[in-house]
Design a protein that fits this description.
The structure holds 2 protein chains of 2 kinds.
Chain A: H1 11-40, H2 46-58, H3 63-79, H4 82-102, H5 107-119, H6 125-138, H7 143-156, H8 160-173, H9 178-191, H10 203-219, H11 225-235, E1 243-248, E2 253-262, H12 263-269, E3 270-274, E4 277-279, E5 281-285, E6 291-299, E7 311-315, E8 321-325, E9 327-330, E10 333-337, H13 348-367, H14 372-386, H15 391-404, H16 409-428, E11 435-437, E12 458-460, E13 482-484, E14 503-505, H17 513-522, E15 527-529
Parallel strand pairs in A: 11-12, 12-13, 13-14, 14-15
Antiparallel strand pairs in A: 1-2, 1-10, 2-6, 3-4, 3-7, 5-6, 7-8, 9-10
Helix pairs in contact in A: 1-2, 2-3, 2-4, 4-5, 6-7, 8-9, 10-11, 10-13, 11-14, 13-14, 14-15, 15-16
Chain B: H1 10-19, H2 37-49, H3 58-66, H4 85-97, H5 106-114, H6 135-145, H7 154-163, H8 182-194, H9 211-216
């Protein structure tokens, strides 16, 4: 039951209500008995339509009754004249309309209407679209009506520009109409994709939408709808699959990517050469998944200390290939790293628009330093425009957000973590080193982008705020020998994946000793400090 | 839950569920052709409990769910439908069972979900809507599968859930002061379990069943890393 207030009633009132309910129940049960018995007899007639119609008019959500009506209508279709059929379908539409007035969110009444229109010979789609307009005036957020509108549009096929214009009108009526923003996002991708540039939206429209949304959020900053649309626009950039790091040792060969890829992709696009010889093998996901961002390459090529010309080719598209060349980092240990970059890449006019909007956002933030949405949006703009240049300001803002929007402090902490990692990684990739020690001013709370560190042998994650939820993602540390998790917020080590560790340091966490001793028994080759 | 799967006609169930799958991977609810991601989740969940997922085309079922993904990373009831926390649970649950959590936009979706929390601590199901106790389940289970349950404030949410309990009947309602019912009582209790309340048996976020049942059936729904 939704939205039914519990009210205290007197005994007398209660008695009267109970009696009323009993009466209703009696009529209902009588009708249902008759309907079921008629169905058992196979009586698909007009009387049955009347009986079910009466019950549905009071209780539109009885699926069974709509099903019975469909059986009858299908049966009558074989018997009646065209004229009679039109009348039958029209009266069915009237019944659904009546039922939808009783319950505008009745799944089965909406479905019955769709079914009739799909199966009748002469659907009037124009009229249906007008009905949607009327209903959306009564409740602009009823997702059933919006779904029905999409159903009608898919048959009526008006120019999509008309529908796009409709969302503009609805939004100008009320910017808080999230359903309209949603529909608009679908239209935008359909109408104005950037086919040549490979971006989701054409530059001029991308820019236009950014302007429209900023207008909306300044009209009513406390309404959240437009902020979600804006966040989507900020993220609507081209994404390309890249190699990240490749590691070759006698124990295993791993290949990390910036996103998840599957085996058919790998087989088609990845080739490994050692001593200029193509090495055949098989890809195995580290997370035991169909799509993964870190893959083990199983091959029979003997790995010794004298390998040369190790390279991996990645075919990105018909015209673009990237190649990683490996270097020897220590005896029998070869690593090839890519140039990495987390910066979003916008078209010039869009970037210009973002920069202009940033100026007004900053002014607004000065006026209202504790307005959550202003601070959050400014922060995302800074990150999108130039994350590296604005790093300090971004972290400062996120710290402010943890205070002014404390319900979502966990989210902001994870953002600090992720963006600090992104700042750290490009530098880290320039050093020829197999150690990974976190060196940022904030304690990290999660382990994003861990596949980028898959080549590291010594991993120091000590003195952070990591919880046991993070442990399963350590599966990415496929070459790690020494793992330091001391002084974190671990409460259990059950989620720790199987790695070829030599040393595990977990001092300074509140752990169950019995659990650790058990772990030690099962992993006697690992030196454990706890 | 009662360990009595032997009591049902497994072949019959599998045959019916599989017959509801359509060419595009979607599922009908019955012969009359209503399509909804709720039906996909019911189908996938039913077959996985019976260890018979191979009876359907899982890849196509996943592709259909992904065709329902929206600009905010959420999901609706069919392709083109607006995101709604209840349907997000169904779609994320399907991907969890089919072990395709990688296909989600984890950060975008989890942000949208944590923004469902209102100052009262309660959660709504769509932007600019009222809080409702059942979203404590739809939102929190999804966030748990996304490994980001710490993005909402557990303390105020727990207070909201407890305020929805009717002190006379013990049941829970959608909002404080409303009439309680079994639907909201289940989701109130299951929500408290996800928040770490140890007085309640651990509930599995994908199946909304006791964890011990899931363990006994040796099911391993995926959690995002």
């Amino acid at each position: 039951m939704h939205g039914r207030l519990k009210v205290r009633t007197s005994e007398e009132e209660k008695y009267r209500k109970d009696k009323e309910r009993q009466e209703k129940l009696k009529i209902f049960q009588h009708a249902m008995r008759k309907i079921i018995s008629k169905r058992k007899q196979g009586e698909k007639d007009v009387e049955q339509l009347e009986l079910t119609g009466k019950v549905l008019a009071n209780n539109p959500d009885i699926y069974t009754l709509w099903n019975i009506r469909r059986e009858i209508i299908e049966h009558l279709r074989k018997l009646q004249s065209d004229e009679e059929l039109i009348k039958l379908c029209d009266s069915e539409l009237s019944l659904t309309e009546y039922c939808l007035k009783i319950n505008p969110k009745s799944y089965c009444a909406w479905h019955q209407r769709e079914w009739i229109l799909k199966t009748r010979a002469d659907p009037d789609w124009k009229k249906e679209l007008e009905l949607c307009n009327t209903y959306l005036k009564l409740d602009e957020r009823n997702f059933h009506t919006w779904d029905y509108r999409r159903f009608v549009v898919s048959h009526y096929r008006p120019p999509l520009q008309e529908e796009f214009k409709y969302t503009t009108e609805k939004l100008h009526d009320n910017f808080s109409n999230y359903s309209a923003w949603h529909y608009r996002s679908k239209m935008l991708l359909e109408l104005y994709p950037d086919l040549d540039g490979g971006r989701p939206i054409q530059d001029s429209h991308h820019k236009h939408e950014l302007k429209m949304v900023v207008n909306a959020v300044f009209t009513d900053p406390d309404d959240t709808s437009a902020w979600f649309y804006q966040r989507w626009l900020l993220g609507a950039v081209k994404s390309i699959t890249h190699l990240v790091v490749f590691t070759l040792t006698p124990v295993r060969t791993t290949i990390a990517f910036n996103c998840h890829v599957d085996k058919p992709y790998l087989n088609a696009c990845i080739q490994l050469y050692i001593n200029n010889e193509l090495v055949k093998g098989e890809f195995v996901s580290t997370g035991n998944c169909e799509y993964d961002d870190l893959w083990i390459y199983k091959h029979g090529y003997p790995i010794d200390d004298n390998l040369h010309a190790i390279r991996i080719d990645h075919t990105i598209s018909n015209t673009e290939t990237e190649t990683l060349y490996c270097e020897k980092y220590m005896p029998c240990f070869y690593v090839g790293k890519n140039k990495i970059n987390f910066q979003h890449n916008y078209a010039e006019p869009v970037l210009k628009e973002l920069k202009e909007q940033l100026i007004s956002l900053r002014q607004l933030q000065e006026l209202e330093p504790d307005s959550k949405w202003t601070v959050l949006t400014t922060t995302f703009f800074l990150w999108c425009i130039n994350s590296s240049e604005h790093h300090e300001e971004i972290l400062k803002n996120l710290t402010t957000l943890k205070r002014i929007d404390s319900q979502r402090a966990g989210y902001y902490s994870d953002l600090i973590t992720k963006w600090s990692m992104e700042k750290l990684l490009p530098n880290c990739y320039e050093q020829k080193c197999l150690d990974y020690k976190l060196d940022c001013n904030y304690k990290i709370t999660s382990l994003p982008h861990l596949q980028y560190f898959s080549f590291c042998v010594n991993v120091d994650l000590s003195n952070q705020d990591l919880t046991s939820n993070c442990l399963p993602s350590l599966i990415k540390l496929q070459h790690c020998k020494v793992l330091n998790l001391s002084n974190n917020k671990l409460t259990s080590i059950i989620g720790l994946p199987e790695l070829n560790l030599e040393e595990l340091i977990i001092t300074g966490n509140v752990l169950n000793i019995e659990e650790v001793e058990m772990y030690q028994l099962e992993h006697f080759s690992i030196m454990i400090f706890f | 839950m009662y360990d009595r799967l032997d009591a049902i006609d497994v072949e019959g169930v599998v045959r019916f569920v599989a017959s509801m799958q359509q060419e595009d991977g979607s599922f009908f609810g019955d012969q009359w052709g209503e399509v909804d991601t709720r039906f996909t989740f019911c189908a996938v969940m039913t077959l996985s409990l019976l260890h018979r997922l191979e009876a359907i085309n899982v890849n196509k079922a996943v592709d259909f769910v992904l065709s329902c993904m929206n600009f905010d990373g959420g999901f609706g009831s069919k392709p083109g439908s607006e995101s709604h926390a209840g349907l997000i649970y169904c779609c994320v649950g399907t991907l969890s069972i089919c072990r395709r959590m990688d296909a989600l936009k984890g950060d975008e979706l989890a942000w949208w979900l944590c923004e469902r929390q209102l100052p009262s601590g309660g959660l709504n199901g769509r932007p600019e809507k009222l809080p409702d106790l059942c979203y404590s389940w739809w939102v929190m289970s999804s966030l748990t599968m996304l490994n980001r349950i710490h993005w909402v404030d557990k303390e105020t949410l727990e207070q909201f859930i407890l305020a929805c309990q009717d002190c006379e009947t013990g049941g829970f309602s959608d909002r404080p002061g409303d009439v309680s019912d079994p639907f909201h009582t289940l989701f109130g209790l299951a929500g408290l379990s996800l928040l770490g309340n140890t007085a309640i048996k651990r509930v599995n976020p994908t199946y909304c069943l006791p964890q011990e049942t899931i363990d006994r059936l040796k099911l391993e729904p995926q959690i995002l890393l």
